[in-house]
Amino acid sequence: MATTAADVLVDTLIDWGVDTIFGIPGDGINGIIESLRQKKDEIRFIQVRHEEAAAFMACAYAKYTGRLGVCLATSGPGGIHLLNGLYDAKLDGQPVLAITGLQFHDLLHTYTQQDVELDKLFMDVCVYNSRIMGPTHVENVTELACRTALAYRGVAHITMSVDMQSQSVSSGKRSKRNLPNHVSDLMAESAHVPAEDQLARAAAILNEGRKIVVLAGRGALHARDEVIAVAERLGAPIAKPLLGKGVVPDEHPLTTGGTGLLGTRPSQEALEDCDTLLIIGSSFPYIEYYPKPGQAQCVQIELDPKRVSLRYPVDAALVGDSARVLQLLLPRLDYHQDRSFLETAQSGMQDWRELMSERGTRTDTPMKPQVVAHELNKLLSDDAILATDSGTITSWIARHVDIRGNMMFSCSGNLATMACGLPYANAAAVAYPGRQVVAFVGDGGLTMLCCELATAVKYNLDVKIIVIKNNTLGQIKWEQMVFLGNPEYACELQPVDFNTIARGFGFQAFTIEDPQQCGAILQQALATPGPVLIEAVVDPHEPPMPPKVDAKQAAKFAQSLASGTPNASKIALTVASNTVREII
């Protein structure tokens, strides 16, 4: 039975089905930590080495499981460190609860140690945000925090003074209107179905369309069968924003793969040529990759009404759950006999896959980063869980690793933060022991939170960390050159011996430098039990080529080379070689 305010907090979390919390102990949360110790058989505490990683792990836990992710940090700096991972959850629409401590309630606002009002600091990131005012306030607030995070798919935050955490429940004076047990852990679900007139309007638009593209994002991850059925009936290629990579298997004949800067040429060309667009569960942020406004009629299926028509003018809005809406829409759709638009996209996709295979099997040295992703793709199980970081490595995973079977994939989508890949993989291994878990990360991102290698070892997580080592902040380097026409500046990284570091943490470690040995070494590494790091040394001058290079980008790139970019001749030679390979 709960005896302290912290006990009430922990018991309420257990009632809501929370079985895992990520965080670091601290003197601002001592009462909560003690309650977690007493309930360790019912709820596990995963100790991380940096609070930012705790928030990333909570976000990834929510992404991979569909459940509430929870992180815990102490007062002041501990809570502050959570923010980057919490913004990752906010921008990707994941239910996460952050719990933080405050200093003694009667010393707040007196410049005491760690006197940071975290509830005020967290105002922008949260859908629910509350400071607990006493032991009788805990249950109400915790119930509402869990409910709101799940219902609104966002971040909830609870903060409580350290002295209050250990206060006896019996000592708390309940107000006369705060009746005991007036809240519950029942989660109400709405029907999530659109209005009849919008369904009819959407069906009419889609039936009239002749060149239809389906854009299926993270909100359609649970609706694979429905997305495929609708696309088949419409004769529509399925393009996938990065967070929607798992919606449809990459080898399915209806998909043209990714879209945007990391996407495929067939997806971009389909979006450029379409007359009708069906957006399912996506608010893909890069407006320049959508059809030009006015070019296409648009139907959008979206659970959150405020996200309707964010990126493209919508002609019919179907507010509701993707799977349920598609089930209602499908019987109203005509089978499109003309498959020419789809067949053009399929032909383009065949050419694209041949190009990706050619790039992924090159034997040049230094080794091309695509080779590592290409070889990894052959070795992944059909239920593997993949995490990647932000940078050029995202391009290689997006284009060279195929989703199949029950594989899951995620990354930091809309925040696009570095350093998330390793914590994501650790969270996946915590949630799904026994499944293959692989993080594909860059040397820039890994050095930011390499301390989390210790977390993997502490809990003997069966994670495989592949670090693409090119000693540069590659994505920034190419953005400086291609989008701005500036010489590369401040992007070169001090080389790091990741194998030595990994072994120091207790990892098994491997190095790949020879492309012809890449597959064999990866196979050995993936078969090695426990935490393993693979350092892949690659060509720093290999560009993450966009699906189509326009004249403006080419001019900016030429300007950059002429303006004093280091290694200009090597970069030009690499890019010229890639361009020739595309043409022939």
From TrEMBL:
Keyword Transferase in annotation: no
Domain Thiamine pyrophosphate enzyme central, first and last residues per copy: 199-329
Sequence ranges assigned to domain Thiamine pyrophosphate enzyme TPP-binding in this UniProt record: 389-535
Gene3D superfamilies named in the record: 3.40.50.970, TPP-binding domain (3.40.50.1220)
Record Pfam families: TPP_enzyme_C, TPP_enzyme_M, TPP_enzyme_N
InterPro entries for the chain: DHS-like_NAD/FAD-binding_dom (IPR029035), POXB-like (IPR047211), THDP-binding (IPR029061), Thiamin_PyroP_enz_cen_dom (IPR012000), Thiamin_PyroP_enz_TPP-bd_dom (IPR012001), TPP_enzyme_TPP-bd (IPR011766), TPP_POXB-like (IPR047212), TPP_PYR_POXB-like (IPR047210)
Superkingdom classification of source: Bacteria
Record-stated family: Belongs to the TPP enzyme family.
Protein name per the record: Pyruvate oxidase
Natural source organism: Microvirga splendida
Lineage: Bacteria, Pseudomonadati, Pseudomonadota, Alphaproteobacteria, Hyphomicrobiales
